[in-house]
Amino acid sequence: MTHLDSDHQILYKLMDEYGNDVWNYAYFLTRNRDHADDISQEVFIKVYQGMHTFRGDASTKTWLFTITRNTAFSYRRSRFFKQGLLGGRIASLDYPVEGSSAAKYSTSTSPSAETEVMEQQYADAIWDIIMELPDKFREVLVLSLKYDMKIKEIAELLNISEGTVKSRLSRAKLKAQKELRRLEE
């Protein structure tokens, strides 16, 4: 097996294992499916080109999310992204993503169509609330809840202190819970 074949296998494994996470994180950062597609592709190109620079100081997921975050922020500053935002709306989320923690809660008996619709509407309402949070709160909440990242990992990824992560996470949860209670009234 050549060095190039080995690199391809590593890339395919990373894409298979983390591709949905990278795309979802890019989506949460940009709030746009097309932009998340573009960013995800760019992330894995960067990973392929720089895979030999990975030192293992952080977990693979943290490394990929750092590249995703930096790529998304560069993309957001680009003219193309700014033009694409004109008249854009937040698309609805299609959760749970197969293989995600939310998908684990399915039961062996099939729920009624009405129950499924109501559960999907409730899930959509929760994601809408999360998407409306200020960026700094939304980001820590998503990294913690959806990607199950530890406080230390989030702090490394965002280059902020663990105390700041804890504070933002607490405030994000409070804001989301308050809005959810308001909707349930």
Automatic annotation (TrEMBL):
<dbReference type="Pfam" id="PF08281">
    <property type="entry name" value="Sigma70_r4_2"/>
</dbReference>
<dbReference type="Pfam" id="PF04542">
    <property type="entry name" value="Sigma70_r2"/>
</dbReference>
<dbReference type="InterPro" id="IPR013324">
    <property type="entry name" value="RNA_pol_sigma_r3/r4-like"/>
</dbReference>
<dbReference type="InterPro" id="IPR007627">
    <property type="entry name" value="RNA_pol_sigma70_r2"/>
</dbReference>
<dbReference type="InterPro" id="IPR039425">
    <property type="entry name" value="RNA_pol_sigma-70-like"/>
</dbReference>
<protein>
    <submittedName>
        <fullName>RNA polymerase sigma factor</fullName>
    </submittedName>
</protein>
<keyword id="KW-0805">Transcription regulation</keyword>
<dbReference type="InterPro" id="IPR013325">
    <property type="entry name" value="RNA_pol_sigma_r2"/>
</dbReference>
<feature type="domain" description="RNA polymerase sigma factor 70 region 4 type 2">
    <location>
        <begin position="124"/>
        <end position="175"/>
    </location>
</feature>
<keyword id="KW-0731">Sigma factor</keyword>
<dbReference type="InterPro" id="IPR013249">
    <property type="entry name" value="RNA_pol_sigma70_r4_t2"/>
</dbReference>
<comment type="similarity">
    <text>Belongs to the sigma-70 factor family. ECF subfamily.</text>
</comment>
<keyword id="KW-0804">Transcription</keyword>
<dbReference type="InterPro" id="IPR014284">
    <property type="entry name" value="RNA_pol_sigma-70_dom"/>
</dbReference>
<dbReference type="InterPro" id="IPR036388">
    <property type="entry name" value="WH-like_DNA-bd_sf"/>
</dbReference>
<feature type="domain" description="RNA polymerase sigma-70 region 2">
    <location>
        <begin position="14"/>
        <end position="79"/>
    </location>
</feature>
